[in-house]
Write a structure and sequence with these properties.
There is one protein chain. The chain is built from six helices and five strands. It is of the alpha+beta class. The chain folds into three domains: 87 residues, Mlu1-box Binding Protein, DNA-binding Domain (Roll), CATH 3.10.260; 48 residues; 38 residues. It has a five-stranded antiparallel sheet with strand order 1-2-3-5-4. β2 and β3 form a beta hairpin. α5 crosses α6. It is elongated and about 85 Å long.
Length: 178
């Protein structure tokens, strides 16, 4: 089991260190609480009461504020950010962090709502413009009418070929099924 202690991040003028254990990055809870100005004991009790986070807690040898290595309660990094967002406190540092979280969540999910809506609006406009031009060309241009008829025939032949291929495959398979 390979363990390494490295600098994790600097937050509110404090170094938050992590421990890499076989590719999982463990982050100590107490230094984060100290950096955010929230009471560690209350936060630890809340984590212990949380059915999800409780099962993820582990004691890991970490570097404390006094630069001594001691066992500290830690969470895997991938759960730390969600845990931080769930903390209730009037701490200014925590409120600043939460605002950043809200911004990040909005930016991430905006693609699922706003960007999709904008893309659909643009697509609808382009389809309508294309239909308008197609109708204009159809009524004014004999060559265009002929092109549309040929494209219709090509699509019909493609459907027919697909059906013929399906029938051939089915008949070939029936030879092996008996």
């Amino acid at each position: 089991m390979e363990k390494k202690i490295k600098k994790f991040l600097e937050f509110n003028g404090r170094n938050i260190l992590f421990l890499n254990v076989d590719g999982t990055f463990w982050v100590a809870i107490k230094p984060i609480c100290d950096a955010l100005g929230v009471e560690y004991t209350r936060i630890f009790k809340n984590i212990k009461a949380d059915k999800t986070l409780n099962q993820l807690l582990a004691n890991q040898p970490m570097v404390g504020a006094d630069l001594r290595v001691r066992n500290m309660v830690a969470l895997p990094e991938k759960y730390v950010y969600g845990w931080l967002f769930s903390i209730n406190s009037d701490s200014d540092a925590l409120q600043t962090y939460k605002l950043k979280c809200y911004d990040l969540l909005y930016d991430y999910f905006q693609g699922a709502v706003t960007k999709r809506s904008n893309e659909l609006t643009e697509k609808t406009w382009a389809v309508r413009q294309a239909q308008t031009i197609r109708e204009k060309l159809k009524s004014e241009n004999e060559d265009y009418k002929q092109l549309c008829e040929l494209e219709g025939k090509v699509l019909k032949h493609c459907r027919n070929l697909k059906q013929i291929d399906k029938e051939l495959v089915d008949s070939q398979l029936s030879l092996f099924m008996n």
